[in-house]
Amino acid sequence: MGKSDATSVNRKEEIISAAIEVFAEIGYYRATTAQVAQRAKISQPYIFRFFSTKEALLLAALEVSWTRVIDSFHKVMESGLSEQLEPDLIRAYEDILDSYRNETLLQMQAQTIQEDSIREAMRKGFGEVHRIVLDAFQGAGIPNPQERATMFLARGMLCNISSALDMPELMGK
Amino acid sequence: MGKSDATSVNRKEEIISAAIEVFAEIGYYRATTAQVAQRAKISQPYIFRFFSTKEALLLAALEVSWTRVIDSFHKVMESGLSEQLEPDLIRAYEDILDSYRNETLLQMQAQTIQEDSIREAMRKGFGEVHRIVLDAFQGAGIPNPQERATMFLARGMLCNISSALDMPELMGK
DNA sequence: ACTATAAGTAATTGATGAATCACTAACTAG
DNA sequence: CTAGTTAGTGATTCATCAATTACTTATAGT
After folding, report:
1. Closest to A78 measured CA to CA, from A98, A125, A70, A128
2. Phi, psi (rounded to 5 degrees) for B108
3. Hey, of A22, A106, A107, A112, which one would you mutate to test binding to chain B, going by the most B CBs within 10 A of its CB?
4. pLDDT tens readout for residues B69-110
5. Which residue of A has its CA nearest to B108?
6. Looking at the domain assignment, is residue A32 inside a domain?
7. CA→C1' distance for B78 and C16 (Å)
8. How far is CA A114 from the centre of its chain?
9. What is the C-alpha to C-alpha distance for residues A113 and B88, in angstroms, rounded to an integer?
10. Structurally, how many domains does chain B consist of?
């Protein structure tokens, strides 16, 4: 299998990557499957061989984006000293925002989508991240872990907005 | 002029109110002007007597939502003691989230819309709220006002998400 | 009554988009 | 070789929607 080999799994991942870009740039509802297909360099109908609906494609894209955050936080916890735990987590999240801005933009969009399946995916993602951070803070013996976990998430959410609107001043200069 | 009198200004406000509801519930791009019209109990084309485009209607709706927050914060600052300033501002924002949830959902949507005019409106709204909070904290002699203002906004943004996804546990139980 | 203007709508238009269908080309196992 | 499977596309379908047009009804001033 050479690098240009197009396995079914590769195609699926390529489509998801294209969808993350296009959905983030154009907006999920406004973006068309034709635009996603063009970005993925395939024909529009071929998307539906891998995803039964546009919404299924969005769900797959969200799954990728949440896995990104969760895996990153797990890595920090495994390898880090518990004294610098919070700054390490902050840095990890900022790195994701730098490198995978589109995934964050997609998550932000999905926060207000009312379809049950999307809401469930978002609840699961947020819930798991919250649980991980809370466990980490408790395990590290940080005082008021509940409140600190909330403020950690809160800072992250403002960070998202500051990035999305290109307003660095919101994060206190 | 009785209460059922339909002045041009009233109609405009009614349309904006209907748009806030429909856009928040359905999503701006997915919502149709026909749905807004139905909610406002007018015909679909009549919307375009007041707003030249769907986007102009969104801008008007965002204007209303930001004015809501800004006016509320101003009122807190005028009438409140500076010792309880921060909790008063928090309560004021929570009241808005309770009473005007749709306006917040609309703002959340607009955070990721890439059209220049929308981004500009969002920057203006966020910028003004940030300025007000920062001025208030500085005026009240709160230490580290910059950082405290950032954390105030951050908490508000997580509060939005917690409300939108119906996840009260995110705010630390 | 009469005319101007405001309030409002039905019908249409032109464009667009998700999803399906019908098909072709390339590879693979026996 | 050939029968079956995988990869892929062009053309079409059916629905939808923002925006326009052309029209009707009501109101107010003279």
Report:
1. A70
2. -60, -40
3. A112
4. 999 999 999 987 778 999 999 999 999 999 999 999 999 999
5. A112
6. no
7. 51
8. 18
9. 31
10. 1
Low-confidence stretches of chain B (pLDDT < 50) are 1-5
Interchain contact A111–B (C-beta under 8 A): yes
Tokens coding A51: 């995803």
Residue B160 belongs to a domain with what CATH number? Answer: 1.10.357
User: What confidence tens digit (pLDDT) does each residue in A12-36 have?
Assistant: 999 999 999 999 999 999 999 999 9
Q: Tokens 């909790």, residue?
A: B87
Residues A67, A129: contact at Cβ < 8 Å?
no
Which SS3 state, helix, strand or coil, does residue A141 take? Answer: coil
Distance (Å) from the alpha carbon of B7 to chain A's nearest alpha carbon: 34
Rounded Cα–Cα distance for residues B15 and B50 (Å): 9
pLDDT of residue B76: 95
Amino acid (1-letter code) at residue A24: A
- The set of residues, in sequence order, having a beta carbon less than 8 Å from that of A166 and lying 6+ positions away, is B123
Task: Compute the average pLDDT of residues A141-170.
Answer: 98
Residue B129 falls inside a structural domain: yes
What DSSP state is assigned to residue B5? -
Backbone angles phi, psi at B111, to 5 degrees: -60, -25
The answer to whether some atom of strand C lies closer than 7 Å to the beta carbon of A48 is yes
Nucleotide nearest to A41 (CA to C1'): D8
B167 — contact with chain A (CB < 8 Å)?
yes
What pLDDT does residue A73 have?
Answer: 98
Averaged pLDDT score across all residues of chain A: 93
Q: Do the Cβ atoms of A77 and A132 come closer than 8 Å?
A: yes
Mean pLDDT of A85-100: 97
- Burial call B17-44: b when 16+ CB within 10 Å, e when fewer: bbbbbbbbbbbbbbbebebbbebbebee
Q: In this structure, what token pair is assigned to residue A23?
A: 């959905």
Number of C-beta neighbours around residue A56 at 10 A = 14
Q: Which domain holds residue B164?
A: 54-171
The answer to the question of residue B110 being in a domain is yes
CA dihedral A72, A78, A80, A84 (to 10 degrees): 80
